[in-house]
Amino acid sequence: MKMAEKPKLNLNRVPIPKQEPEIRRKNFNEVALGYAEEQALEEANRCIECKKPGCKDGCPVNVDIPEFIKAIQDGNMPEAVRILKSKNSLPGICGRVCPQETQCEMTCNLAKKDAPIAIGRLERYVADWEGAHPCHSEPFAPCHSEGAKRPKNLAQDRLCEGGESNPAQDKLREESRGAQDISKEKKIAVVGSGPAGLTCAADLAKLGYGVTILEALHVTGGVLMYGIPEFRLPKVIVQSEISYVKSLGVEIKLDQVIGKIATVDELLENGFDAVFLAPGAGAPMFLDIPGENLSGIYSANEFLTRTNLMKAYLFPEYDTPIKAGKRVVVFGGGNVAMDASRCALRLGAEEVYIIYRRSKVEMPARAEERENAEEEGVIFKLLTNPRRFIGDEQGRVKAVECYQMELGEPDESGRRRPIPKPGTEFIIDIDTAIVALGTRPNPIIPSTTEGLELTRWGTIKTDEATGRTSKERVWCGGDMATGAATVISAMGAGKRAAADIDAYLQGKS
Ligand code: FAD
Predict the structure, then answer these.
(1) Which residues contact 272 (CB under 8 A, 6 or more apart)?
(2) CA dist 433 → 63, 160, 268, 347 (Å)
(3) DSSP string across 116-169
(4) 3-class SS at 274?
(5) Which residue, by CA, sits nearest to atom 36 of ligand 1?
(6) What percent of the chain has pLDDT over 70?
(7) pLDDT confidence band for 325 (50 / 70 / 90)
(8) CA of 94 relative to ligand 1 center, distance in Å
(9) Is residue 209 predicted with pLDDT exceeding 70?
(10) Is residue 179 predicted with pLDDT exceeding 80?
(11) Distance between Cα 488 and ligand 1 center (Å)
């Protein structure tokens, strides 16, 4: 990569190439294609190298953002990889799905001019560069080991030049040395293999602990695998980054439902010195209106799990079918609702509606994903709420009755409260409904573990700074502690807990 002249102040963010809406709404391939080398360099060179960079403060896992951007500017990609991975074991994932606009990009000093550096896109570029150059990055990106092939994108058009040594590689090897030899006697069990569990496990392995992840499903990755669709987060990227975590020495055991095959107390009695709980919040919430049990009504969890994890979109090659229907309504305004609506389109629905009781401003979904959904043809029915479902003689849903809302004063969430408008009822004919109202923690672990204090929302009471729970030798983080949140907040919690578990086991706290 050649050095380029650094412009003084360039407020033009480099757009990321995307599949055209008309094409992508018919396939499950990744929508955003990633920067090419020249685009990444142009974007990196917009960084003004501030004396007091705000970006770093906005990153929940403290990535040294100015330094990795500098490495891109210098054309030193192995160093960019090293800087990123010293703090973040899952950069390809974060570069794709983190809400950077409310984190590092929001605190970037150029955000004041409405043109923050596209930190997420650059992070993705670095991660994809590493995936395309495994010989450069071994042993810390063992793409070959799982036979994992990253999807072809612009960053991958270059050849791997061989396995010659590089100082950045040597430094990362040095930093990860503890992981290669398990140098500490203490053993830690991590329950759940989503971003919180993977991050905690990776950090503890880097410190030299023996770490075992116990995962309930037959696949590692949590929501990254079963929730977020392929077209936003290719599963080969997730598995490749999980391979990295494994390469640090982390053992992963699948099909292990803690609370059923063993309790937390049994883990502590049988060889584990500490337990980190990261089972997420995977139990769906429902509308609780008449007719919700009719056939053709899915929770977003079921719909997305069938589509993404069980690969229903590849039926009959994969043996899980799904009936998406022709007229689909999705209830909710978050990322989950956007994902469900866009999957329905790709599965052949002719009309897909998002029904949301507030306005666009209050929608919790990332603006980028909302725009993508709109570009693809999802129709937004805002300030609208459902009253009841109407079924046919076979017990299948055939319509939903809705009514209009208006916004009142802000409620306890800070958003304006939606108020029903009398006399505004109307019927929408549908054949499928998907409820994406959010999720709550599954009670299986709390109900089988003595001494774990809960909050009134059913999450595990946890000290935010350390992840400690009310039970000795048990930590918790991610959605199980906060309720449904984000990938990066789960990772931040995993990191803080790993540091505190280490301090505790070393007798320092
Ligand atoms: P999870 O990712 O839920 O992982 C928990 C793991 O624990 C799972 O693998 C589960 O099988 C396992 N487990 C559960 N119970 C047990 C048990 N008893 N024993 C053993 N294992 C158990 N966030 C973003 O930042 N950006 C996005 O774009 C985004 N999009 C999303 C889209 C969807 C459809 C969904 C559902 C969520 C999205 N999120 C997004 C939120 C984000 O994915 C979660 O906040 C994050 O995955 C939480 O991580 P976690 O590690 O706490 O839990």
Answers:
(1) 187, 188, 189, 212
(2) 40, 47, 43, 14
(3) ---HHHHHHHHHHHHHH-HHHHTTS--GGGGT--PPP-GGG-S--------HHH
(4) strand
(5) 227
(6) 89
(7) confident
(8) 14
(9) yes
(10) no
(11) 11
Give distance in angstroms: CA of 74 to centre of ligand 1. 36
* Nearest by Cα to 101 from 78, 118, 126: 118
Looking at the predicted structure, is the pLDDT value of residue 6 above 80? no
| Ligand 1 center–CA 193 separation, angstroms | 9
Q: How many residues does the chain have?
A: 509
The pLDDT tens digits of the residues spanning 210-259 come to: 999 999 999 999 999 999 999 999 999 999 999 999 999 999 999 999 99
Cβ pair 15, 82 in contact under 8 A: no
Task: Kindly tell me the burial class for residue 164, based on how many C-beta atoms sit within 10 Å of its own C-beta (0-12, 13-18, 19 or more).
Answer: exposed
Site to probe by mutation for ligand 1, drawn from 487, 489, 495, 496 as the one with most ligand atoms within 8 Å of Cβ, is 487
pTM: 0.89
Q: Which residue is listed with tokens 């490495």?
A: 71
Pocket of ligand 1 (CB under 6 A): 97-99, 191-197, 214-217, 222-223, 227-228, 256-259, 278-280, 282, 304, 335-336, 339, 366, 442, 444-445, 478-480, 484-488, 490
